[in-house]
Write a structure and sequence with these properties.
The protein is built from four helices and seven strands; from the N terminus they run E-H-H-E-E-E-H-E-H-E-E. The longest helix has 16 residues. The mean pLDDT is about 95. Helix 1 packs across helix 2. Strands 1-2-3-4-5-7-6 form a seven-stranded mixed β-sheet, with helices on both faces. The chain has one domain: Gcn5-related N-acetyltransferase (GNAT) (Aminopeptidase), CATH 3.40.630. By secondary structure, it is of the alpha+beta class.
Length: about 170
């Protein structure tokens, strides 16, 4: 595998198209990332346009894993939290292209998100993942602690309910 570069993404037509394609692919393959299958391109584009605009305002960081010019993974670090929670950030929308899974890309994205959170004064990360086909083994391997499971929390992309696992991790330099 070639060197994968992890960086904060800025809005551009190419980045928007690759993010939207990855979201559609993830949902089509059962990824529980808030959308239902079939996900229409207009809806995926609108989501990423809003997300990248929020990143421009400093409310989040959308990280991308690039294999050359190809976006092969992404994760979002949510920073815009209530005033009584300036010490924490939330991990969202962790996705890796199907063709690039099991290559350490998600781990590299998570480690970069953790470093960026800490650099912004955050000492606690939280995230959730689906019970069915979620990424709990990844998060547990990175030191995240399971708080609990909420049953029947969301619909799976192809229908049916799934529980959600809530995780947290204290971070430091």
């Amino acid at each position: 595998m070639r060197h994968i570069q992890i960086k904060a993404l800025s809005p551009s037509p190419d980045i928007l198209a690759m993010l939207s394609d990855m979201l559609i692919e993830t949902v089509a393959h059962g990824g529980s990332v808030s959308f239902m299958h079939p996900l229409q391109p207009e809806m995926a584009n609108a989501f990423w346009e809003n997300s990248l605009a929020a990143a421009t305002r400093g409310e989040r960081i959308v990280l991308g894993a690039l294999d050359g010019d190809l976006l092969v993974g992404t994760v979002t670090l949510l920073l815009d939290l209530p005033p009584n929670q300036p010490h924490r950030a939330e991990i969202a929308k962790m996705m890796t292209k199907v063709s690039h899974r099991k290559r350490g890309i998600a781990t590299a994205l998570m480690r970069a998100a953790e470093r960026m959170a800490f650099a912004r004064g955050r000492t606690l990360l939280v995230l959730d993942t689906a019970v069915d086909e979620g990424a709990s083994p990844l998060y547990e391997s990175l030191g995240f602690n399971l708080t609990g499971i909420i049953p029947d929390y969301a619909l799976k992309p192809h229908g049916g309910l799934t529980g959600t696992m809530i995780y947290w991790k204290r971070i430091a330099a």
